[in-house]
Each structure stands twice: as structure tokens, then as C-alpha cells.
Amino acid sequence: MKVVLAGGTGQVGGILNRALTAEGHEVVVLTRRPVRDRDVRWDGRTLGPWTETIDGSDVVINLAGRSVSCRYTEGNLREMMDSRVNSARVVGEAIAAARRPPRVWLQMSTATIYAHRFNEPHDEATGMIGGTEPGVPGYWAFSVEIAKKWEQEQERARTPHTRRVALRSAMVMSPDRGGVFDYLLWLARLGLGGSVAGGAQYVSWIHDRDFVRAVEFLIDREDVAGPVNLAAPSPLPQRAFMGALRSARGIPVGLPAAKWMAEIGAFVLRSDTELLLKSRRVVPGRLLEAGFAFDHPEWSQAAVDLVRRVRQERSRT
Ligand SMILES: NC(=O)c1ccc[n+]([C@@H]2O[C@H](COP(=O)([O-])OP(=O)(O)OC[C@H]3O[C@@H](n4cnc5c(N)ncnc54)[C@H](OP(=O)(O)O)[C@@H]3O)[C@@H](O)[C@H]2O)c1
């Protein structure tokens, strides 16, 4: 297959690029700063010569968007919104204009689209979209708005010959340096892998290999379109999540942090507490219904596998 990864230079793009290339597919990356052989320049906003890569491709996966690991200032929130909405819009326009459109367009979305809640898990059919739940900071609603607008751009595109899927992905856990798992492991090694603000908030996650397998499954399944949750079937409270990570790495203690401590920590790390405090209890309703089987359904086992791969990769470098 010829696969176009728009915004494919980041963490998720790296995971997909490696896996798809290793399987013999031709992968082209759309980036604002092309450096490698198969990089093609685009600006993520306007049509240009890059659209030729889409014409005649089999699959387009759009991952572009300003990183969410930043302070949620007004300017950053605006950039988070614009980079996602504009790139989804222009990818849709390129597909609509293609003489030989791809058969499927996978558009990244996020599990953050669902409401902050602790009781019922969210699947695609019965889950509650967030933004109106009481008692959460207003800017959490803005993150939901970003996800909704992102998906709307894909829905409104006129691409009758291309199946469209929105990937409502949970955090993708991989052994890569600079990825989410690496960051959590680092915190745990500093002794900071304890509960945050009580630790009852749910963490949704997906192992990188299951993420790749789910993407390939969705490429193949002609009968699946629309929003699909990409999350392991067993989200768990943050306290248990960090406990399992610590035990996989052999770290006996993790200091608990109150909400205000998390706020200071997030400020120092130029990040935001929403990533730690929002309860994301998201389950893969449609994937399971369609017959997808997770290789890593349970976090304790997935964490052991990831720690093993981190060690393996670090011992090579
Ligand atoms: N990582 C996760 O666990 C996870 C989970 C759920 C959803 N997501 C979403 O999935 C997408 C990919 O995640 P990731 O972790 O790979 O993100 P990432 O590492 O931050 O990479 C995103 C890519 O988007 C491009 N980009 C950044 N700002 C842009 C802008 N203003 N205009 C156009 N392109 C821009 C960048 O490519 P260039 O600089 O090369 O142009 C970058 O490589 C993101 O939208 C993220 O929100 C990620």
C-alpha cells in the first residue's frame, strides 16, 4: 500500500511509520520541515504540490496538530485548535480533488472528547461527549471542542469514494524516548509515581503494538466508518495505573501528590494538569464488536512488556 502520514514526524507518526515500512508499505510523510527521503513539504493549511502524494495513494492518516503537552494559554489553545481543524480541512480538500482518491482516510481524534466521569465507561454508542459536565475547568471544555471540530471537518468533507474513520485514541504507550510512557517512567524513577489528587481518575491507554494493529484492522475493514475508540478494554484508576507501572519497573514507592503539587509540577514542566486529572474511562466498543482482539488488554502485563523493551532499546544505544 501507499500510505500518506500527514503530521507523521511525531510520536504516533514514528510508531506507524516504522511498523508500516517494516511490513513493506510505501510511507510518505507530510511535514512542515522535510528532512528525510520520503518527507514531503506542506503547511497543514493550504493546498499545494503535496496533494500529488494523496492522489493515487491507498490510505491517508492525518496526525497533524500542535502538541497538547504545553501550558493551556489562550494562544496555545488557539494553535491546538487551528492546527487540527485546518489540517483536517485541507486533507479533505486534497482527497476531494484527487483523480484517484485513497480508499480510506483515518483522521486522528482523541479519547478526550468524552466527559470527565468515574462511573460508567464510554463506548462510541453510549458514551457521553464532554464539555457540559459540572465542576470542571472551562478550558477542559475547550479541549472537547477541539476534538469535536476536528471530527466535524472530516465529516463535512466531500469524499464519496473514501471511507472515513475518526480515531478516538487514548494515550499510546511505546518505549520511545520522549513519549508518554518514557515520561511516566521518569516520574516514577524520581519517586513521583504515586497517586495524583487521590488517584481515582481513570487512565485510558493503548499499547503501541495494539495501536498499529488496530489501525491496520481499520484500514482493512470496509464496513467500519465514523468514530472508533482506540483504547485497551481495561482503563484503570490513576493510582492503580502508576502502581502497576512502578511494580513493572521495580520501584516500591511513589509519593502521592495533591492537586496543588500537580499544578506546580505541570507548570515547571510546561505542561497542563488536564492530562493528569481528567478521568478518561474509555473502552473500545466498536473494535471489540468488529472482532478485534487485543494482544495487550491488561495494563500490568503491558507495562512489563514496555519496561522490557525500554531496557532492550537503551542497552543498544
Ligand atoms: N500521542 C498520543 O498518545 C495521542 C493520543 C491521542 C491523540 N493524539 C493525537 O494524535 C496526533 C499525533 O500525536 P503525536 O503524539 O504523534 O503528536 P506530536 O508528536 O506532537 O506530532 C504531531 C505532528 O503534528 C505536526 N504539527 C504540529 N503543529 C502543527 C501545525 N501548526 N500545523 C501542521 N502540523 C503541525 C508536527 O509535524 P511537523 O512539525 O513535522 O510539521 C508533529 O510531528 C496529535 O494530533 C495528538 O493530539 C495523540
Total separate domains: 1
Name the CATH architecture. Answer: 3-Layer(aba) Sandwich
Write down the secondary-structure element order: EHEEHEHEHEEHEEHEEHHHHH
Q: What is the typical, i.e. mean, pLDDT?
A: 95
**Could you describe the largest sheet, including whether it forms a barrel?**
7 strands, parallel
Oligomer category = single chain
Radius of gyration, whole Å = 19 Å
Q: What are the segments in which pLDDT stays under 50 over at least 5 consecutive residues? A: none
Overall, the morphology is: globular
Give the topology, please:
Layout: E1 2-6, H1 11-22, E2 26-31, E3 39-41, H2 51-54, E4 59-62, H3 74-97, E5 104-108, H4 138-156, E6 163-169, E7 171-173, H5 180-189, E8 202-203, E9 205-207, H6 208-220, E10 226-230, E11 236-237, H7 238-249, H8 259-268, H9 274-277, H10 285-289, H11 299-316
The protein binds NADP nicotinamide-adenine-dinucleotide phosphate.
